[in-house]
Amino acid sequence: MRLIDFEVTGYDYLTFLALVIIIVAVFYVIIKLASLPGKLAKRNNHPHAFAVNLMGWFGFFVIYPWFQAIIWAYRDSYPVDVRNFPNAPEKTPPDDPTPPGSDTSEKAPQSRPKQLPDATSGDDMNTGQPA
Fold first, then answer.
1. 88, 75 contact by CB (below 8 A)
2. What digits encode the pLDDT tens for the residues 30-62?
3. Three-class SS string for the chain?
4. How does 44-62 read in b/e, with b if 16+ C-beta sit within 10 Å?
5. Residue 39's CB: how many other CB atoms inside 10 A?
């Protein structure tokens, strides 16, 4: 077969085959890496798995958003309302002159902080009055 000015041999076909295999392997690696954040998010039942998947695909070619998508796939993004934390055990303040382990029966009762209104109740955040 004479397509060009020299004879195409078996080594030329082997070179073309190796080139095709390398191109297919590169595309396979690109597809696997770009879809990795979405697959991790789906496996972890992430509430925003579709968005993580999109960020993984679109961010792959820019690289930096792809790393953010990997982190996002592992991190829950549920909002945390810090006003409704359960009451933590009361600790001795660091400026208390009482050493740890000493028994003081005349200790004054500690008051708890005022409970803030719930954000979902429709109360005004500053006054506590209904909006």
1. no
2. 999 999 999 999 998 888 899 999 999 999 888
3. CCCCCCCCCHHHHHHHHHHHHHHHHHHHHHHHHHHHHHHHHHHCCCCCHHHHHHHHHHHCCCCHHHHHHHHHHHCCCCCCCHHHCCCCCCCCCCCCCCCCCCCCCCCCCCCCCCCCCCCCCCECCCCCCEC
4. eebeebeebbebbbebbee
5. 15
Q: Which of 90, 50, 88, 105 is nearest to 72 (CA)?
A: 50
CB 38 within 8 A of CB 57: yes
Judge whether residue 88 has pLDDT over 80. no
At 72, give phi and psi (nearest 5°).
-65, -35
Task: Give the whole-angstrom CA distance, residue 32 versus residue 82.
Answer: 39
Instruction: Determine the angle formed by the axes of helices 10-43 and 49-59, rounding to 10 degrees.
Output: 150
